[in-house]
């Protein structure tokens, strides 16, 4: 739990938003160490103060569940992210777009499906949706740019349904929701739930918004959930996957694939996750999560894996809640209760790994190799400028690049009567600058340094 002073500051920010933005009801939760550390609610839903079990429509946060289902298929070898859509859902006019491009909204598809405003009208079966697609479905060359597409996620939902031979919502329930204990997340509302409203722009009156089953478009924004369940989903996205997804796959989802605002790079998209770069009182944060909106509802979920914290908020209004609410709540938490660094503890390091630690040289540039837990290695430039990567051990005695410039590359330790050197993607690292005893590409001038 948070301190009483922190709770008061968080509640004040929530109350300010509910009053200023004129929201019928607004709930929020802070997740820390996998649990709800604070929950707040303002306004009324069905005449009652909403609780952690009150359902709201979560809109496009649904897409994060679809993305996890798709990546589970990839991890099982049933699809490849480079597969064209046509391989799994043949016959669409955008069949050349890849699964990865659909996940990251870089496929160039139109944002919305043909027909009326799909979010306020009853949906059509997926067969009718697919039959309605024409040449206008493609708006940009695949891979050229970020262009958010609800239609793209409807198509991904159909990929999931066809590969599992079951409706997408059944797949989500059986493979994700039930293993995580998320019993309050459903395709249609169940009591208690908030009613969705539009708030008149110039008067304090409400207009109920329609709610329908969106059928073929449902994977883009159908789900309803609660603050309690979304807190559990936030814990999942922070790393508590409980076997639903490999940790390395979750990390892959958070990697930036594209950015929305070019050089500024404050918002972007990974594989099913929106990304934000935010600077708060404790410095820069990279947040991952998703927002959601449907007529009558707004939702937001953001996680900071580096600190192990997350924020969730849900509202039953079509528009008005400021986007800064989520980061403001995280900033309040960071200001009042900054995280403590993890305690340092000694670890066991194998002698052969310990022997490799210390200074190495790539040409004249000094690098340092440090031991990490589990026989891992970290290679960083001593000056702080240059290429840095972490490496994890492989069964054949090599190390595989985990991140940075050398992600996916192989680090080899080569021993010879002349000494030891490192080989990394054609580069040679030696114990001395341009050590003539190492096989430096291009050789070393026999006159040496002078």
UniProtKB/TrEMBL annotation:
Stretches assigned to the Beta-lactamase-related domain: 14-324
Name of a matching Pfam family: DUF7586
Superkingdom to which the source organism belongs: Bacteria
InterPro entries for this protein: AmpC-like, Beta-lactam-related, Beta-lactam/transpept-like, DUF7586
Regions that span the bilayer: none
DUF7586 domain sequence ranges: 349-431
PANTHER family (UniProt xref): D-ALANYL-D-ALANINE CARBOXYPEPTIDASE, D-ALANYL-D-ALANINE-CARBOXYPEPTIDASE/ENDOPEPTIDASE AMPH
Protein name as it appears in the record: Beta-lactamase
Naturally occurring in which organism (per UniProt): Thermobispora bispora (strain ATCC 19993 / DSM 43833 / CBS 139.67 / JCM 10125 / KCTC 9307 / NBRC 14880 / R51)
